Amino acid sequence: MAALTDVQRLQSRVEELERWVYGPGGTRGSRKVADGLVKVQVALGNIASKRERVKILYKKIEVLIKYLDPEYIDRIAIPEASKLQFILAEEQFILSQVALLEQVNTLVPVLDSASIKAVPEHAARLQRLAQIHIQQQDQCVEITEESKALLEEYNKTTMLLSKQLVQWDELLCQLEAAKQVKPAAE
């Protein structure tokens, strides 16, 4: 019974509050203050839960950044047995790299030689020679084209001269044939 009177008291207080908010004319439409308060409370709850999710997300991002840090692996204590297994697994690669490093060490005197140190000077000379070579190639192309043109002219001239000589030979043969025919007719 006490609970019933508490609910009635609460109901009367809400009605009194509605009269204060909406005035003596009553509520506007079917909307009540309690409904509005419930909606506000739900919205605040949603905002609070989203805020908690954002906080959790930020914490997860911090953890992810920690794992992505290259120094994180250095901070993790790897057992000696695991390190040994890793080294043994990479033994052939390590030995090949050692052989290559030894080969480089034997070639260091060659790399320190005067001829290698003079490479920049030779590079400038080589650049000049390359430019001269390109110019000579261009000249060679021009000379080749001129030679082709001259050969074509020579061939045309020779062909015309040959035709002219053939015509003269035919004319001469005709004249000789005509001359031989005349004495026989006398």
Find the count of extended strands (DSSP E, 2+ residues): 0
Give the CA-CA distance, first to last residue: 175 Å
The total count of helices amounts to 7
Number of domains: 2
Helix coverage percent of residues? over 70%
Gross morphology is elongated
What is the element string, with H for helices and E for strands?
HHHHHHH
* Backbone CA Rg: 55 Å
Uncertain parts: none
What is the averaged pLDDT score? 84
Structural class: mainly alpha
Strand content: under 5%
Largest sheet: none
Gist?
The protein has helices at residues 2-22, 33-68, 71-75, 80-89, 91-111, 114-117, 119-185. The chain has 186 residues and is mainly α. It comes from Rattus norvegicus (Rat).
Explain this structure.
- This protein has 7 helices and no strands.
- The radius of gyration is 55 Å and the shape is elongated.
- It is 88% helix and 0% strand.
- The protein is an all-alpha fold.
- The protein has 2 domains: 72 residues; 61 residues.
Keywords:
186 residues, 2 domains, mainly alpha, elongated
Write the layout of secondary structure elements.
Blueprint lengths: L1 H21 L10 H36 L2 H5 L4 H10 L1 H21 L2 H4 L1 H67 L1
